[in-house]
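Q: Could you write out the predicted structure for this multi-component system? I'm mainly interested in how the pieces pack against one another.
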Amino acid sequence: MPTETFFNLAKEKKNKVIEISITLFAERGYTKTQITEIVKKADIAKGSFYQYFDDKSDLYKYILNKAIKVKEEYIKKELKKLEEERNFFRYWEGLNKANINFALENINLARVLRDVYKMGKNELFEAIEKDYEKQGIDLIKKWLIIAIKNNEIKSNINIKYTAHLLYTANCFIIDYLLEDEEIDSQNKIYPYANKIVEIIRNGLKNSRKKEG
Amino acid sequence: MPTETFFNLAKEKKNKVIEISITLFAERGYTKTQITEIVKKADIAKGSFYQYFDDKSDLYKYILNKAIKVKEEYIKKELKKLEEERNFFRYWEGLNKANINFALENINLARVLRDVYKMGKNELFEAIEKDYEKQGIDLIKKWLIIAIKNNEIKSNINIKYTAHLLYTANCFIIDYLLEDEEIDSQNKIYPYANKIVEIIRNGLKNSRKKEG
DNA sequence: TTATAATATGAATAACAAGTCACATGAATA
DNA sequence: TATTCATGTGACTTGTTATTCATATTATAA
């Protein structure tokens, strides 16, 4: 947790430090981001940095939590629209849309989250990130159970695996958005996401398939 | 490339160094693996290490290439079985099976490859890994084009996205295998992989779905 | 205005890990 | 056995970057 001193800072200064840190962490990842560079770009002294944060990981964890909070806002907002909805895929699409919007409007925060997700085992951030991942999967699981009860989805699926697959598909779409330079706007990412959703939804198999 | 000296080493000594390195790289990743530890566990002097390898990345690249070669063997072997096959999903399942078998029988090599894949942008290993990834995707693309021609798969899909999705689904299955302790044997991973394949193949949508 | 507390500073230090090198040992040949 | 070449050794050097700390500056209160 940043110190009292940091929170007491003038808004602009505070934001400058955070924004620069987010950008650097997003561009270079945790290890390759240097305090020296943050400090230089933010126009503060090294010593000041350590009056604001316990250490590098303190700043990083703060940003991570921020990213998670912001993303959760997008999800909440999107799900609110679906309050009376009973269709599983609408929900899943909503989750997807929220993720996409979050990434489009907070690309650097999205990159930081993606990095942590990909980092895998890591004493420092495992707990925070696994919790967060588990949350997403649990939500999908909950929906799946309801969808099965409603006969919307066939009952012989494995809930655990399926939930994980659907969660990963969401991550995969975001990944594509964060990496492929071609997909840089809503106009491109939405149709793309819809294609993926459609593939998983209806399957690739041609109903007019001839035997081969 | 390791030096002549390294290749001239007694088989046992050579293998010990490589096996220990693979295990450590798999457990800790590239950065966190220390030459000091490799050297200690392999019972050789630091100086010897640098007579065998130019530097840390030299050893790593050697292991990476080894992993890729071994994996390619599994794929070749599996595809050979399908030589006269005309079914896209059989091919894709074959690729999957090869990946799974490779991972089951070479878990640490699989972990190293997974790490590189997740590492993303990286001056050192980008070239080697991106090439390798592209190979996998290109193979699926090729199959997809044929499958569309044969009316096996509907023609309105986006080949690029679909190939990427299918490739990612393979990676996802392996990921699950490498991380979930529950899935530790063929008996568990095959049914699991089949479920995923089936989901993507036929879709989740219940054909007997009631309107909701 | 002066005293006190809070904040800022950046050169110095610590911690860590990669990579080097002068010397030691062993193997091969004459 | 003496000579030469190949290989082994680990303390030392180097490079890098996080973190500290003694001191300076600025804000607050009396």
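A: Regarding packing and overall arrangement: The interface with chain B takes residues 31, 86-87, 118-120, 150-154, 157-158, 161-162, 164-165, 168-169, 172, 176, 179, 192, 195-196, 199-206, 208-210, 212 of chain A (CB under 8 Å).
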